[in-house]
Amino acid sequence: MKDLMLKSLVIIMIVLTSYSLPAVYDADSSSCFLGSRDLYLLAVAQDYDGRYTGVATKAYVSMMPGNGVIYLSVEPMAQIDMQASLNVGLLIASYVSKINVSNYDFLVKIVSDTPIIGGPSASGFLTAAIASLLLNQSIRNDTVMTGMIMPDGLIGPVGGIPQKLQAAYSIGAKYMLIPAGQRYSTDLNTGKQVDVVAEGERLGIKVVEVASIYDALRSLGIKISEPEKTQPYIDPDINNKILRWAENLNLTYQSIKNIVEGYRINPQIRSVVNYYIATAQNLSERAFRSFSEGDYYSAASDYYSAVIYLDTARWIIEIYVNMTRYNDLYNMITFEFNNTMNSYRSLVDALRREGSIDLSKMIVLNEIAYRVYEAETTLNMIPRPPIQYLTIDDIYNAVYTLWRINSSMTWMDLYNYVKPSEVAIPIDHIKRSSNLLISYVQTLYTYLSSLGVSISGISNINRLINEARMAYMSQDYIGSSALSIYLTALVSSYLHEMFTTNITQTLNSIKEISLKYLGDLKSRGYDISIPSLYIFRGESISNIDPMSSIFYYELAIADTMWLSLFTSSKPVKYTTQPSTSPILNTTSEISIITSSTTETTKTEQILSTTISLSEIILLVMIPAVIILIVIIIRSWKKH
Question: Between 3.40.630.30, 3.30.230.10, 3.40.30.10, 3.30.70.260, what CATH number should domain 34-219 receive?
């Protein structure tokens, strides 16, 4: 009798457990997916003879309920850059669709006959596929694409386009999207420039240049609302404050200039000192012109740089005469830094206790935070006394650190001055976003490193990433997110520096998208003064230093993108819609065949009903089962 009761109890527990276990997703079953996209990615393979050939690689992109994770499966293998580029693409897709991806997981499965799959060159098309899933819109099945998704939403340049055009022809494509500015691309086998638009016409393929993810989505048949451009605007009160910055920096410059002019320069250091003096003079003259034109932030920026160069010249002269002067400089830096960091941390601690921060205040606090932490990074790099040997770079870095600290305090003054927006951002929200931002910028750094980039200053990125992690660990989520936003702009500008083939076109595209993102922020009713400062700065130096101009536009983009993501998210609602299928070439003639598979099955259509029914069954069964178990146990004891 006891055996029979025990068996009954086991059966009951199995039945109960089967109802309470979560569903397990079967990779081979489409019924667990909210949607899927089948497409061809264009790649380049190298044969045994060393010749390059274009290949079309099958890719399957699926979306399911989840936690914002993107999974990658590549057969036979993947390069390191693919996962990183997909992570970037996921965030860009979230931004353009205005849909929070934290409720969904994505599976990207790629099946290839060749082991050389390039992540960046496929990332633009994969980003478009993810966005189409979030927007619940199908993509054209007669169109293929090559291009790298950039962190600012632009489509970056790739190689091997003539070979990829042949691959597009082999699968019957009618349209091929390529990055803007790459109409004339190098043939990897001959080294000659090929007009791929003309070559596409010969093959019956219309080659279309796209500058941004918005261009790509429209060309793929996606209806997407792109933000309208707006012109930069600075609140008059903030503008007057920055005017005072410029005036004070000019006075500081003149004061240091008077000191330097009174020194006798040793002939052994005269050439290097004269370089710093001349550079400072040029920057000062440029600042004067900007000030005269009413561009006070550009004037303040150039006066600030002029002060750093001229002050470096002063300290080179003084340290060369008396080495102990470096001790004085170092002690001054550490004293100022400790005071500034203490003030900053007191402010952050107070906000953490309050539990939220006003949006306008947070925008300014971001500017303070990344300057403070950058100063800490450079402070840790300069030699600590006592020392016997110094380089010119050591002195420059020390002076830069001193004035970076000064800049932090200047922005601290603006923080106390800026008017609140009455939009409160919870600190817990910033905490979650900060963690995402750190992962994002680490992804960008991995992306950059995996591409073999060799650019001066890249080594500092990893140090700043570590600073962001340390800030997060110390519960300074504002500082962590601020550093990550700054690094996003920095890495984006490095990527453009590495890959751009037409600097003028790239600069114009970045400026255009920065104005659109600014318009997006303005349409939400938020103050656009701080991002506008960077756009004005980018415009002021676009003709003389285009790469630095790109960096300032990227700062504006990073600010506006992340502020928009901080303040908006919405769930996606799905309706039944046919799936898109890849282009197939089944005969000697080019033909387009649409698969008969559907993205939403009847099982999926009643999924929400099934879940609700399961919950009802559980509510009914659990009390009944508990009573039954009690009866069985009592009976068992009697026997």
Answer: 3.30.230.10
